[in-house]
Automatic annotation (TrEMBL):
PANTHER family: SPERMIDINE SYNTHASE (PTHR11558:SF11), SPERMIDINE/SPERMINE SYNTHASE (PTHR11558)
TM stretches of this protein: 20-39, 51-74, 94-119, 139-161, 167-184, 219-241, 253-279, 286-307, 335-360, 372-395, 401-418, 430-448
This protein's record includes keyword NADP: no
Domain of life: Bacteria
Membrane topology: Multi-pass membrane protein
GO cellular component, one term: plasma membrane
Statement: the UniProt record of this protein carries the keyword DNA damage: no
Designated name of the protein: Polyamine aminopropyltransferase
UniProt organism field: Eiseniibacteriota bacterium
Length: 834
């Protein structure tokens, strides 16, 4: 499982974090596992020593793990060329990319998928208690190992070691397993299946615990493969849906996703362990399968009634954490367990039970496991694709979950009617399950309050910081119940995220998975959104021809760019629903996408820039916050090098950086990392929102050219855009100046660089947020702003002096004494010629 986590991260760099990239990875990975399981089942039935064959497959996986970094580097130009040729060609491109990835993953995933059938075959031949309990025990142990792998990779190994060292660690573990098997290998089973080993007797004919009617069981057993494929479909749907729901209050952090997956796997491991005991005593696997499907449906349906309590539970966890990141994560594990654990227990018990049903046809244990595993995988592939692309966008998360629960209930009813036992008992149980489903639909159907389900972690944290736990609970209760606090204008569950637009106090806010990513009015975000679009265009020597904007948000930044005479503006956005919400911000952003110079691409920005052959005069990177999983990929040295390579000579790269809930250590790492490919740059700081805007260049200084600034400012559209955020003149603009990038990076000193491999920011930023870390704003400034400003203004010293005097007067009128002092010092430096 450690290698799966590492490979998934490597593949995200190749295919991106868009829903198309993620779905391609999942489908290709599951496809290989399914083929491996089917092949492993066939080999298990024929080989004399399945354990030895298992060791050989583990050796293959270990070698692949060791070669992971080399394979990744070799694959980069291949996928870059593929993306460059076919990106934007719709389904044909996605299918071609899937085929290439599937071929690349085929060997290791087949080896992984074949491992469980081979282990089961070996152990079942040695286990006198029968193969069904052996299947359950091994499945439980295998899943428990997956839990350990997820936890180790997500919480310890990758943050501490980085990707390639973690892959090497996993390879070392695999090699240790191989060595242990070779050194302490028990004698081979008495006979292999190919030499006359008969499949064990059908469970219903084995003892006094049989419930009767054995002739009915084989009929259902003949349908178990498509039925269990449907069950696999619902299982992956639940995992995707639960993750989508919990990601909002948990903040979408990498640790939260690891915790959710770990809880899901813990339930499966415990359920499989319980099934080992059940299958030892209950000789009615079809009836048991039906009961478990009914329990699963009930657990999912009843659990869905708890969804609207999740914000309250998160508020309690925040209060109980007392500022400790680990305490909050532990509280979130408890929340996830309440939602996921009951149903995942049933899911874990279903796999070995399905194998037991399939073995009613007297099939060898390893072959049965492989075939059932493959059927389940087919359903899982369909579930991962249909859930993200069709079901959630069409009918929403809640209805998708309830639809899947209905499928499980229907399977349960069918299994109970066709299973072992007395007809009156079977029919009564089926009737109870059907009646319960009808009663739930009629009387207890859960609701989905879009506003409450959009309450993200940062909003809950701020409510707690400013008003405590009591106020937070009252706020949660008021959300969605009264329009006095806020009003819902738009809500859409998209393919990758839930997008919400709310209005409060005359301001509108765009929320993506509960995190505010844009606001209107004179609020804290508006100045930053305008300046991020305006400043890089002011710093160009000539009018920019082509501009790339990463992140659409409310559209204000793209609108700001379009106030300049640019040739084309490409805006890259991950989520379609953000674009659907754009009309809600028409009053402030206009309709930038309707401009003939504007082009939109729904894709991961890293994937696009790594693959495109186009060059740009300006690249503006304005993603969401660092603590959100995947966002820190746009703050790595690797991404910055890619961006620098896509700039034309003299081009400008603009980076937005949050300074709120960001520690000094994190800021220093950002400065060090950005300065590697961009040695030249200027810093501007937006006081209202505590946001830093960095204008950087790989090949030239970025001076404050008064002639160029005045020329751009002479355009009425540009001046109006600045004026609406309180910047009436060039003198006003200088109040935001905070120094040179090279000086800030040098002041940061030696320390970590954020890379694709180490993911330093992705794993550090959540601790800054959850601990309420806040950097002293001076950490985002040059140690000598005045000297940097005096040295950066060109070409006329007299004009610069007058401008600085005007800026100081305006800063004093605005009550910004810090800016007044800095501007006066810059004026003195300029007068002395320094």
């Amino acid at each position: 499982m450690i290698l799966e986590v590492v490979w998934s991260k490597y593949l995200s760099f190749l295919l991106g974090n868009s829903i198309y990239g993620v779905s391609t990875v999942v489908a290709a990975f599951l496809g290989g596992l399914g083929i491996g399981a089917s092949l492993g089942g066939r080999l298990a039935a024929r080989t004399r020593e399945p354990l030895l064959l298992y060791a050989r497959l583990e050796l293959i996986v270990a070698v692949m793990g060791l070669l992971s970094p080399v394979a990744y580097l070799a694959a980069r130009p291949i996928f870059a060329s593929l993306n460059a040729l076919f990106l934007g060609h719709g389904a044909a491109f996605l299918f071609l990319r899937f085929l290439v990835l599937f071929a690349a993953l085929l060997v290791p995933t087949i080896a992984m998928g074949a491992s469980l059938p081979l282990l089961v075959s070996d152990f079942s031949r040695r286990d006198a208690k029968g193969s069904s309990p052996a299947v359950a025990r091994l499945y439980a142990v295998n899943t428990a190992g997956a839990v350990a792998g997820v936890a180790a990779a997500g919480f310890l190994a990758i943050p501490a070691l980085g990707l390639w060292k973690t892959a090497a660690l996993a390879a070392g573990i695999d090699l240790a397993v191989v060595l242990a098997i070779l050194l302490a290998r028990p004698p081979a089973p008495v006979a292999a299946a190919g030499e006359g080993v008969a499949a064990e007797p059908a469970p219903d004919a084995r003892g006094p615990k049989s419930l009767g009617a054995p002739h009915q069981a084989p009929a259902f057993a003949g349908w178990i493969l498509p039925i269990f494929a449907i069950s696999g479909f619902t299982a992956i749907l639940y995992e995707v849906a639960w993750t989508r729901i919990l990601a909002v209050p948990f903040g979408g952090m990498v640790y939260a996703f690891s915790a959710i997956l770990a809880i899901y796997l813990v339930g499966i491991a415990l359920g499989a362990s319980a099934a080992a005991r059940l299958l030892r005593h209950v000789k009615a696997p079809v009836a048991l399968f039906g009961v478990l499907q009914g329990i699963l449906a009930a657990a999912v349906a009843l659990g869905s009634r708890l969804f609207e309590r999740i914000p309250h539970w998160e508020a309690t966890a925040i209060a109980a954490s007392m500022g400790s990141t680990w305490r909050l994560l532990l509280g979130e594990v408890g929340i996830a367990a309440r939602i996921i654990l009951p149903a995942s227990l049933a899911l874990g018990a279903l796999f070995p039970t399905a194998v037991a049903v399939y073995q009613l046809k007297r099939r060898e244990a390893g072959a049965s496991v492989g075939t059932i595993y493959a059927a389940n995988t087919i359903g899982s592939i369909a579930g991962s694709l249909l859930t993200a692309f069709l079901l959630i966008p069409w009918i929403g998360t809640l209805r998708s979950i309830l639809l899947a629960a209905g499928l499980n209930a229907a399977i349960g009813i069918a299994a109970l009617l066709a299973g072992e036992g007395r007809p009156i008992l079977r029919r009564s149980a089926a009737a109870v399950l059907a009646a319960s489903a009808v009663a739930f639909a009629a009387l207890a159907m859960p609701t989905w309050d879009a506003e409450r389900m959009s309450l993200g972690l940062i909003r809950l944290l701020r409510s707690h910081w400013y008003g405590g736990e009591s106020l937070t609970h009252r706020t949660i209760d008021a959300i969605g119940r009264s329009t006095k606090l806020e009003r819902l204008l738009f809500y859409k569950e998209g393919r990758a995220a839930a997008v919400t637009v709310i209005e409060s106090g005359g301001r509108r806010a765009l929320l993506i998975n509960g995190k505010t990513d844009a606001t209107t009015g004179v609020g804290e975000d508006m100045a930053q959104q305008v300046l991020v679009g305006q400043l890089p265009l002011l710093m160009l020597r000539d009018d920019g021809k082509d501009v790339c904007v990463v992140g659409y948000g409310s559209g204000v930044t793209t609108h700001a760019v379009l106030t300049h005479p640019v040739h084309e503006v490409l805006t890259i956005e991950l989520e379609d629903a953000v674009i659907e919400a754009a009309p809600q911000f028409r009053a402030d952003a206009g309709e930038p996408l309707a401009d003939p110079r504007s082009r939109l691409l729904i894709e991961d920005a890293g994937t696009y820039l790594r693959s495109t052959r186009r060059a740009y005069d300006v690249i503006i990177s304005e993603p969401s916050n660092l603590w959100i999983a995947g966002m820190a990929d746009l703050f790595t040295r690797d991404f910055y090098r890619t961006a620098a390579s896509k700039l034309r000579p003299g081009g400008i790269f603009c980076q937005w950086v949050q300074c709120y809930q960001t520690s000094p250590a994190t800021l220093r790492t950002i400065f060090r990392t950005l300065a590697v490919p961009f040695p030249h740059g200027q810093l501007f700081f937006v006081d209202k929102s505590a946001d830093l805007i960095i204008l950087a260049s790989p090949d030239r200084d970025v001076p404050l050219d008064l002639d160029r600034l005045a020329e751009a400012w002479a355009r009425p559209e540009v001046a109006r855009d600045f004026a609406r955020v309180g910047v009436e003149s060039l003198a006003d603009l200088l109040r935001y100046y905070r120094g040179r990038l090279d000086r800030v990076a040098a002041e940061a000193g030696p320390g970590p660089i954020n890379t694709d491999d180490n993911g330093w920011l992705e794993h550090r930023a959540p601790f800054d947020l959850l601990a309420g870390a806040t950097s002293e704003h001076e950490m985002a400034w040059s140690p000598d702003v005045a000297a940097d400003l005096a040295a950066s203004i060109v070409p006329d010293r007299d004009r610069a002096a007058a401008l600085l005097d005007d800026a100081a007067r305006r800063a004093k009128a605005a009550g910004n004494e810090g800016a007044v002092l800095g501007l006066k010092m810059a004026r003195e430096r300029l007068a002395r010629g320094k």
